[in-house]
């Protein structure tokens, strides 16, 4: 007999504990009805069972989804049933109006009902919904859609807006100096003189109040390249007394010149201002005179009048001018040929200190420019600094003018240096684009903008000109224009103009954004797993989409049942509303004559066919979903049975 360990008692205790544990498990299974209540009951079976449970619950929910989908489709299809009835009534009215037993007044009454029925179709399309989701307005397919946008290339952070296009021009680097560089022409002959007169303001080739002394009476004359010294051999002349002996004085000089160079080579006289005028007779003649001490100007200082010749613009001198990429040679034929008629106070001379002389010189120079470039296309003028300016009268960036070269010393004679091409500037203050189908034309104020300020200003201008809510932003050096709508109704199209170039949007043609869109149709989850869905597309079933109304009033070509082409018309007034208010927004089909009503019948036939096609499509969706529900139920049932065999308890065994 052992006293320290009661082996029998220990065995009894162990057996009791084991029985209690087994009894507890059996009671748990019997109470729950499940064979697996925790992972310890069957680890592998639990994992398989949970996966099956997920499938079963997914199938059951998919079945519910399909039933909800059927309800949605039935809602849309039921609304279209009413649309069908309305279209049939409208066709009936059009058929009635096509009968010439009706008067104009009768057709007017029929038109009223047509307008109201069209508005009701819009109301059905705009208000039919399921769980607040619009079904027939064409926007049901916009699930998770994003807005269209156009993004430009990188541009400077400062943008200059110009309100008008500018001309290209070329400007002389040196002034045509007043009172120094002048143009003389007797009857075409040219002399340029640099004359120093003190106090009296006389001009080259002319002397006011001249005196000649017998002691100093020699002139040095260069005529057509031949230089001769002429002894006047005349007595003293004192012309200070209001022109005394002036005619004799002129006659003596003329006689001496013609004796030296040939009869009728020169004429000498005084103009209305008592200024001595010496003119060559022929257009090809050139001459210069150095009077030495022969002619003394009568003034307070009695300075000597020097008739030394300066630079001369010879006959047929020319220069090359490049305008808008076209280079032509301009020959000064008008300037030389007509200067003898100058009315500026000095016969045959152009004193550019005189506004009259400037005007005539520029008129004749512009005539020479017109010979080459066409009237008014290129003009010459003097700027405030008395620089000769050639301007291309075309505008914008393509406009330019550039003095390329000249014959002889003509460029220096005219005070011009060859210049770099100076281009005009394009106008870039007008933006034109289409946002969400609406045309935008806005004009920005001229000035220099910070890009962020320009983005804000541009956004305001766009939205002020449309009903859309477009966004304009400037980020990372790029402008982005984003439409206000999402999905297929959102679009941005920027015209390729000066403004587009300014903000980096130009690509050489119209820039159009596509729509980045997900899930282009309603998605019904009809399976237990990801990717097991079906798309349901419901078209826009409003009046404009069915072409029984128009926003523009354009006509519509339609083919009747015999293959004839008919022209359907729309009313000129907006008598059709969106169905939710009294504001006219669209134009109804016009049935005001038999011809128009007949065409309207053909349009309504097409509309009825469109609604029929849509209802047929919805019916096919519904039939499919009914089969889907049956299939899901079968799958759920069989999978539940399999999961039950794994998870559920066998009462006979558990007991």
UniProtKB/TrEMBL annotation:
One GO CC term, this protein: bacterial-type flagellum
Residue span(s) of domain Flagellin C-terminal: 602-653
The keyword Disulfide bond appears for this protein: no
Keywords: Bacterial flagellum, Secreted
Molecular functions (GO terms): structural molecule activity
Protein name: Flagellin
Family from the record: Belongs to the bacterial flagellin family.
């Amino acid at each position: 007999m052992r006293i320290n360990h009661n082996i029998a008692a220990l065995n009894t205790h162990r057996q009791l504990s084991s029985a209690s544990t087994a009894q507890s498990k059996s009671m748990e299974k019997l109470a729950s009805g499940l064979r697996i209540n925790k992972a310890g009951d069957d680890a592998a079976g639990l994992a398989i069972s949970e996966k099956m449970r997920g499938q079963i619950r997914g199938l059951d929910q998919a079945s519910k989804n399909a039933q909800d989908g059927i309800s949605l489709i039935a809602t849309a299809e039921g609304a279209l049933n009413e649309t069908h009835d309305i279209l049939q009534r409208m066709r009936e009215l059009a058929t009635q109006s096509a009968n010439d037993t009706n008067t104009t007044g009768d057709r007017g009454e029929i038109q009223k009902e047509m307008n109201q029925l069209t508005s009701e179709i819009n109301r059905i399309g705009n208000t039919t919904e399921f769980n607040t989701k619009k079904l027939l307005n064409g926007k049901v397919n916009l699930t998770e859609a994003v807005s269209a946008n156009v993004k430009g290339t990188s541009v400077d952070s400062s943008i200059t807006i110009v309100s008008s296009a500018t001309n290209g021009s070329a400007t002389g680097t040196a002034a045509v100096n007043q009172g120094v560089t002048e143009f003389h022409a007797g009857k075409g002959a040219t002399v340029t003189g640099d004359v120093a007169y003190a106090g009296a303001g006389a001009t080259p080739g002319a002397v006011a109040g001249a005196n000649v002394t017998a002691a100093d009476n020699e002139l040095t004359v260069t005529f057509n390249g031949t230089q001769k010294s002429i002894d006047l051999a005349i007595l003293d002349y004192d012309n200070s007394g209001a022109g005394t002996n002036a005619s004799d004085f002129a006659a003596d000089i003329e006689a001496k010149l013609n004796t030296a160079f040939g009869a009728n080579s020169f004429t000498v006289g005084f103009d209305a201002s008592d200024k001595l005028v010496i003119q060559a007779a022929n257009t090809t003649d050139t001459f210069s005179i150095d009077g030495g001490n022969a002619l003394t100007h009568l003034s307070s200082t009695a300075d000597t009048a020097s008739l030394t010749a300066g630079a001369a613009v010879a006959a047929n001198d020319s220069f090359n001018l490049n305008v808008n990429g076209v280079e032509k040679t301009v020959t000064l034929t008008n300037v030389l040929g007509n200067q003898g008629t100058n009315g500026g106070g000095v016969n045959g001379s152009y004193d550019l200190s005189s506004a009259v002389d400037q005007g005539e010189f520029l008129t004749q120079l512009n005539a020479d420019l017109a010979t080459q470039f066409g009237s008014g296309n290129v003009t010459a003028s003097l700027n405030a600094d008395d620089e000769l300016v050639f301007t291309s009268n075309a505008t914008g960036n393509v406009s330019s003018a550039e003095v390329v070269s000249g014959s002889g010393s003509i460029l220096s004679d005219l005070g011009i240096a060859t210049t770099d091409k100076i281009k005009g500037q394009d106008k870039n203050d007008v933006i034109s684009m289409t946002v969400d189908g609406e045309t935008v034309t806005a004009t920005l104020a001229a000035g220099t903008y910070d890009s962020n300020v320009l983005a804000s200003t541009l956004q305001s201008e766009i939205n002020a000109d449309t009903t859309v809510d477009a966004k304009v932003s400037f980020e990372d050096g790029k402008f982005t224009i984003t439409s206000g709508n999402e999905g297929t109704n959102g679009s941005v199209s920027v015209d390729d103009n000066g403004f587009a170039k300014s903000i980096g949007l130009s690509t050489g043609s119209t820039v159009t954004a596509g729509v980045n869109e997900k899930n282009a149709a309603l998605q019904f989850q009809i399976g237990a797993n990801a990717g097991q869905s079906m798309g349901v597309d419901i078209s826009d079933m409003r009046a404009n989409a069915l072409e029984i109304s128009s926003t523009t009033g354009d006509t519509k070509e339609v083919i009747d049942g015999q293959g004839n082409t008919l022209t359907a018309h729309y009313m000129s007034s907006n008598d059709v509303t969106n169905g939710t208010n009294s504001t006219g927004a669209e134009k109804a089909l016009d049935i005001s004559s038999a011809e128009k009503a007949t065409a309207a019948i053909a349009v309504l036939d097409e509309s009825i066919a469109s609604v029929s096609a849509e209802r047929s499509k919805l019916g096919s969706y519904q039939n499919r979903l009914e089969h889907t529900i049956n299939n899901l139920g079968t799958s759920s049932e069989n999978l539940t049975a399999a999961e039950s065999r794994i998870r559920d308890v066998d009462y006979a065994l558990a007991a």
